Amino acid sequence: MADIPKKITVALAGNPNSGKTCIFNMLTGTRQHVGNYPGVTVEKKEGLCRYRGYEMTVVDLPGTYGLTAFSTEELIARRFIIEEKPDVVVDIVDSSNVERNLYLATQLIEMEVPLVLAFNMSDVAEQNGLVFDIGQLSQLLEAAVIPTVGNRGKGRTGLLDAVIETAERAGFERTHTIAYGEEIEHELASIEKLIGEKESGLAEKYGARWLALKLLEQDGDILTKLQNRDVIDAVRKSIEHLRDIFGDEPETVIADRRYGFISGACQETIKTTVELRHNTSDLVDAVVTNRILGLPIFLLLMYLVFQLTFSIGTYPMGWLEIFFGWLGNTIAGFWPAGSEHWLKSLLVDGIIGGVGGVIVFLPNILLLFLAIAILEDSGYMARAAFIMDRLMHKIGLHGKSFIPMLIGFGCSLPAIMGTRILENRQNRLTTIMVIPLMSCGARLTIYALLIPAFFPERLRGPMLWLIYLIGILLAVVSAKVLRLTIFKGETTPFVMELPPYRMPTFKSILIHMWQRGWMYLRKAGTVILGISIILWAAMSWPRPHDTSLAGLTAEQAQQQKLAYSIVGRLGRAIEPAIRPLGFDWKIGTALIGATAAKEVFVSQLGIVYAVGGPDESAGRHTLREQLQANYTPLTGFCIMLFCLISAPCVATAAMTRQETNSWGWALFQFFGLTTLAYVITFIVYQLGSLLLY
Amino acid sequence: MKDKHSRTLSEVPEGETVTVVSIDSGRGLRSRLTSMGILPKTELKVLRNHRRGPFVIAVKMSRMVLGRGVADKIMVL
């Protein structure tokens, strides 16, 4: 019998910053799976844990402060508990802040779930001079209470033993529940009875008392489930009656009683031995969130993050480039030199070129994620949001939006993934839409080609600065416009906890970094691979007849082939449309190629000008000369402007689709930005031509 | 507790400790604040009030950032 593992489901609930993720990592190790809850982009983390002949599926519920119907996260957590009926719910409680954290526990008790309380970060509580009478607390709350230190892996066996014991105690009934006082209890009882008679289906699913309680709290989600008029009327009358008695909303009174229950339980069982007036976190905050010093410290830290990402990242990036170069050459070596076999071209140019181009950025991205994980786990990110809130508020966003926008300077993909920290959907969508306006690393290669071609030495720095600045300004204006139009709607009030500073643990930041890095890799392996192949095909077919290539040099032949291909033809087809921007078909062709990845613009231009690949410095040199000979500095500037604003690369579009769960928003972003780019470049080119020439 | 003495939290200068009287907001925000430990009779201390921009307050053991719009809706004594 002991051979077959017993399968149980364990859900982890808890406040944000209670160390829930640490406990999740402690229980499941690296056997984790990250996905989304159906229909929403709230992360769903699941992991496996084997212990004493049990196979536990551990589900990390979103971090919440309560279980109301007011936020998506809370609704998801609540629905999971109701619909999936986990065998045990473990509530992770920050034991240095028990009273506030137990508020969630009271709501779990109301749902009558089999409950285990993990009093996490018990080491911090001890340092703060808190002493718990665990046995008595456990009796009062009618749930096992286990002290844990998640980031150091302490309390794992105790917690797992308690989970198994609770799971086996199925059918257990509480001897006492939270008492809401005579008046409320009276109304509860009468509604409970009525529900049992008239809405028996609902009562069976949710439990009559819990339903009655939620109805008195005017819970939006539950109210819409009611069908029976008698019940609806009775609830309305009860609420009015309670309002009269208390002079306040029933939900406020109920909340008050919950806190009363908590302080009743805590009074006898938690002792404070030292009176703490200032803790270290407050001292650090005195400097870090200082009115004058806050912003410079923040900017300095961000500078360090970028410095770390791009300076250290350069080395592994170089190795990867060498590796993919070697891989391409090795595979090409299977065919005789000069072979034009399509399979060789597909493997070398399409797959290795396309996917390699994305994977080359992986070291940068991992380093960026590492830095972000450190900032998040240490507690600084919340301070950064506080510091930036005043500025961001002016464009209708929260301080938190600033962080993903900043990441956008590195690459839009992690930036869009980073918007998960924003709770409000309107805010999140607005931020995702404007992220591509932050000049990413790939676009820097375009500027690096064009600026020296058209501008004298002394203007190069300012020109680069100007391009970045235009991106930021456009992002600010677009965000404001979006918030006033399609993403209108009240800004959710800004309320955020500042967690105490903590030393991040090596293991947790590595897990964080790896999970995000893996998502990026998976994207490269699936969507980007597919799109690279399509674009490769569009640039390779149809092929001109061999006789028309006779007598041409290799570069000229390549140029002919590109011009003859679908992309080349599209480039010509859009020429009339891009004429007013100062672009010809060659630029058009390169722009179409650039939708695969922005840096492709440079290699495409190299091909249409038949100057060889952009990698050889000689080729790049002659490409600059060619550009200089063919275009004016105004056109050069317009190209940069268009590349800055226009359609984000397909990987970005794919990421937007994934994170917004809709192709609609991805297409809106793609075409919206392209339209914006067209209009702005048009104005600049036309005005510029008028004024300059 | 006379109502005429109460003021909004946003008027409270840095360093002062006050008690919440009421939260004059929609149900969503009130419920959110309640679950974060801010409800009538709660004592809180203003740690940062830069006149513009968000607020930092201390509630029991936690530190919280409130947008100015939120602080405007919390009546304190």
List keywords for this structure.
heterodimer, A: alpha/beta, Rossmann fold, Helix Hairpins, two-stranded antiparallel ribbon, 33 helices, 65% helix, B: 77 residues, alpha+beta, 6 strands
Strand content of chain B: 35-45%
State mean pLDDT of chain A (0 to 100 scale). 84
* Beta strands of chain B, count: 6
Number of helices of chain A: 33
Write down the oligomeric state. heterodimer
Total number of helices of chain B: 2
Fraction of residues of chain A in helices? 55-70%
The CATH homologous superfamily of chain B: Ferrous iron transport protein A (FeoA)
How far is the N terminus from the C terminus of chain A? 89 Å
Q: Given the helix and strand composition of chain B, which structural class is it?
A: alpha+beta
**What is the approximate shape of chain A?**
elongated
* Unreliable residue stretches of chain A: 612-620
Order of helices and strands of chain B: EEHEEEHE
For the record, the CATH architecture of chain B stands as: Roll
**Strand elements of chain A, count:** 10
Secondary structure elements and pairings:
The complex is a heterodimer of chains A (693) and B (77).
Chain A: E1 6-14, H1 20-28, E2 32-36, E3 43-51, E4 54-60, H2 72-84, E5 88-94, H3 98-110, E6 115-120, H4 122-127, E7 130-132, H5 134-141, E8 144-147, H6 156-168, H7 182-198, H8 200-206, H9 208-216, H10 220-223, H11 229-246, H12 250-269, E9 270-272, H13 280-288, H14 294-332, H15 342-359, H16 362-378, H17 380-394, H18 402-407, H19 412-418, H20 425-434, H21 441-454, H22 457-484, E10 495-498, H23 506-540, H24 546-549, H25 554-564, H26 566-573, H27 575-578, H28 585-594, H29 600-608, H30 617-630, H31 633-645, H32 650-660, H33 663-692
Parallel strand pairs in A: 1-4, 1-5, 5-6, 6-8
Antiparallel strand pairs in A: 2-3, 3-4, 7-9
Helix pairs in contact in A: 3-12, 5-12, 7-8, 7-9, 7-11, 8-9, 14-15, 14-16, 15-23, 16-23, 19-32, 20-22, 21-30, 21-31, 22-31, 23-32, 25-26, 26-28, 28-29, 31-33, 32-33
Chain B: E1 7-8, E2 17-23, H1 27-35, E3 43-49, E4 55-59, E5 62-66, H2 68-71, E6 74-76
Antiparallel strand pairs in B: 1-6, 2-3, 2-6, 3-4, 4-5
